[in-house]
Amino acid sequence: MTFADAKQRFSARVADYIRYRPGYPSEMIALLRAECGLRPGHVIADIGSGTGFLSELFLKNGNRVYGVEPNEGMRQAGEEYLAAYDGFSSIEGSAEATTLDDASIDFVTAGQAFHWFQEDAARQEFRRILKRDGWMVVAWNDRQMDTPFASAYEDILVRYGTDYKKVREAYPEAETMQQFFAGGNVSQRSLRNEQTFDLEGLIGRVRSSSYAPLEGHENYVPMMAALEELFRSNQQDGRVRMEYSTHVYYGRLGASG
Prior knowledge:
There is one protein chain. The chain has one domain (about 5-250): 3-Layer(aba) Sandwich (Rossmann fold), CATH 3.40.50. Helix content is about 40%, strand content about 25%. The chain contains ten helices and seven strands. A seven-stranded mixed sheet has the order 3-2-1-4-5-7-6.
């Protein structure tokens, strides 16, 4: 599922996104080395690269990374965040039109932005830019729901988020990924990930999300009040913990679809 304004939904949220969104566990690189033969010489196209969290994993591995991002604010933030890495190139483009050369990429990667892609057009574009034996990797952080804190946090998002249910339903599932790989061989692994927050961090984590009401919206003040109460009820030594599973799908795109 995609939304017409997907490329602009995060324009007002860049600062909070950089400070409070989870990154990706370093174990993901070890997984791709073992399963896909990833090595430093491979060229990566990170699609919907945003502020650069996923790109940084590959840059630390010694890869050349092209970060393709359509949102100007997110792209500029990624350029600043990754300025120390000579191997990073920032590209104004999208999943459906990357501007990259034919058969020039060893790995196409996509992180949390995957659910905004127009899947058919993106798959066609990825086939175009990938080398013959190139790999597709999709990863995203999925909040765990099995603690009282996590359950109450979810209830706040459902109650006060502007379109949380719509966005949540668009997150890819195993069947969606099988369809996207279009008959190619796709494997899946899940890795542990977590964040800890003080109250400011918890509020920033919510504000970084596209479905969080902005200041001035009727739901903003009651949502912030609910978050403060949630924090007070669950904090230990002034912190709360948010746990994730980082789902990683990897394989080669099939010829069909």
